[in-house]
Predict the 3D structure of the following.
Amino acid sequence: MRWMLPFIIFLVTASLAFAENPIDESSTVSGIVLSSEGFPLPGVHVYLDRERGTATNADGWFRLQNVSSGQITINFSMVGYERLSKTINVRLETVHEISVTLEPITYSSGEILVTAGRRAQVAGRVPVSLATVSAQEIERRNIISLDQSLRYVAGVQMAENQVNIRGSTGFSYGVGSRVLLLIDGVPVVGPDQNDIKFDALPMAQVERIEIVKGPGSALYGGGALGGVINLITKDFAETPTTTVRGFVGAYEPPPYEMWKRTWAGADNFRPYQGLVVSHSQKVGDKFGFWIHGMYKDDLGYLENSATENAQVFAKLGFRFSDKSDLSIFGGFRISQNRQFLYWNGLNDPLRAGRIDFGGSVARGGNYVQSEHYSLLPQYRHFITDDLFFTIRGRAYSIAVRPIDSQGNLRPRDQHTVGFRYGSEFQTTWVPTSQTSVIAGISYDDIFANSEFFIGQDSTMLRNQPEYAVFMHVDHDLSRKITVSGGLRYDAYQIDDQDVASRVSPKINLAYSFNEALTVRAAYGLGFRVPGVAERFVNNRDFLPLESNLDLRPETSVGYEIGSNYAVRLSQNVSLDTDIALFWNEYNNLVEPRFVPSLAAFQFINLTEARIRGVETTLRFLIDGGRHRINLGYTFLDHRDLTEDAPLVFRSNHQFVSGAELSLPFGFQFGIDYRFFSKPERVDSDFSRFVVDADQFVAVHVVDARISRNFSLASGKADLLFTAYVNNALQYYYTERPAYLAEPRNFAFSAQIRF
Amino acid sequence: MKRILTFCIAAFLISCEGLAPLDDVDPEGIIAVTITYEGDWPSSNELFDLRFLAFRFIPQNESDFTRITEMVVSDRLQYNVDEQTIVIRNIRNGTFFYNAIGWQFGPDIFSNWRPAGEYRENDGIAVLRGDSIHLDIHVDFDNLPAFPPEF
């Protein structure tokens, strides 16, 4: 029955709220935002105050509801355009339509971000390091999986299926993410491995991705030790909008005969293709929805790496009254993956290896069907104009089903099944225009059943309930100084007797000298409770792995100072620059290690560690956004203080850059380059079993694309063609041990939006 | 200035060397081993496995038998025979400092190992491109070599 509690709370509270059904006395303001050239501007942030705002849709339209009568000021902001405020007189229960033109010039975006403080804040004044990836960037790069977009963000390093923000994570075989993934503020971390399923997300309906760099436990609890990634999904389109994008591509064969001699598949280009379809619209004033479908078939560039992935996600929005609304995000993904785990050495890296020792064979390849289901309802209710509460529910399940050599699912007792559910109640109170207070409680539970988790107690079912209470206060001491403080208490029931608990405070300060320059300082504690897989995995199918029931939570303390400066360098060039110095100390870091006495790998509380560094980003905007250049450099000084040696799998120097240029005849050209220095130290335990697993090089990757947009049917439809080359230098490297990263590949996409 | 910048970028990118095969020529050699046995064979509950092992290092403890990427491991040898000759192909170049018949005497495949016979001449063997090397190893179950090996 315990699992029903959050849902009962959710249903009862929602019902009470509906029963109130306050009288509708508000008005609506809608309109269009145009560029100075007269083109509609999508993605413009339109807001009344901290809590009430929206963004323009693909046609430049916006709609603000629940607007009080009287004189109001509406603010418009977008990267590359001057911020604009427009004051209008709103009459009772009327719909006002306005038209606004934004002038391109200043870089200072006024972009509204929500992850840093669980509320809307203007970019540049956010008191933590926070990067964003826009819907336009996602679309331009044909991104269909979250990890692809993160590869272009300064300070973020991918290790194939693990994300590492500012060195917080090394490589732990895809288990136990130190970065928390949220969808519209709701956690969606895998219940089995505590990991992020990067390809089970509706990327075509993502408005932007916000990446908080640094501990976020004071706001979001365990799992946010190294940072937070929040996917903000799109609002519903004012006019029905359908987008269809198809793409085809192929991986280039390797140039080395030695790599091809053992696998005939390496002689030819290896194709991939996919289709993304999405539709969004509002239906009257009370209801809106979007739906996203994606299918991708990828033959893979490694012998055992073909994947087939289909997913459907939808979001429904109901506005019951001016004071209450409900949104429901949900969907599923099903995929059949041939998983390539480790290679057969650097002379044969395209084939999965085998560990054949003492009559026991471990395999470096695997074939599974995996299914993910998610349901994330959110209900919001305004008690007064200054006080509202939000109830968030979450249910997230996965099933991983091995497939045998005949293509049939293996027996059920070999399947891994996980279920995470929970709910959260949050109140937001804005007593004055200078102060906001957020407080809430949450409850989550995880169940995971797998033969990989069988232990001495002979059970395969594991669970781990979590409880939390949190509070966060923002206060503007003056027009220039904002101070934020937060406190969160988390408790995790590790087993019947043992509860791990932690209080995570944070305090942030931002001082704005003027509109252009803000300096900030942050202090916070972070922690993470090891997931079910880290504690209970016990298997020798792929590598010898032993459970560790004594695993303790890992903790961190982080400090950061930084500044954000937006300046106009000339008539046509503006610059937005950010610099941050950070210092994080970690205790009881959980890392996988080979334990000779067990003759197996085990997740253990290994070490105390220190990661400090500096990060700087520069964003140039030229000709009002016709050309853009981004540069980001991160230096990491990382140390395992127990062993007095560098931490494993961390690059000291990280550099990302990108340019987006408008060419003659309507062509757009984009190019990205990223560099990661060779890790100073890699895990030699893994190479004990897997040949050449310690082979790493620096990473140099260049991606380029060229596109052309055509307007059809008098502007009612857009057709976009794009050609891509990824890893244009055909540079071979590894992001994690014994796994060759993506080689050069070419793709072409066609997208129509109407 | 533009030319210098272009040149620097081009030079930088050309100088990037990614991963490549470790050897660009056929690296494979062959080791043939003739094993002779003496003494009483262990009973079946003490004989879990028997293999020829060529180490690229000198093992110092039982867990070193798990460093299999730094070893050449033969198929399982025949039990209760007087003599056997095996051939192992596709061996990557290198020096093998310690060569022995590995005996798994217990159920734990990762730690219950010890040598039953050794090849102790010439401080090991070196396999160069295409080399075929023949070794003779004698196993006396009643007189096992010391482990860790004494050099």
In short: The interface with chain B takes residues 256, 258-259, 346-347, 349, 355-360, 544, 596, 599-600, 687-693, 695, 697-698, 700, 702, 729, 731-734, 740 of chain A (CB under 8 Å). The mean pLDDT of chain A is 86. Helices of chain A lie at 5-20, 135-140, 146-150, 217-220, 257-260, 532-536.
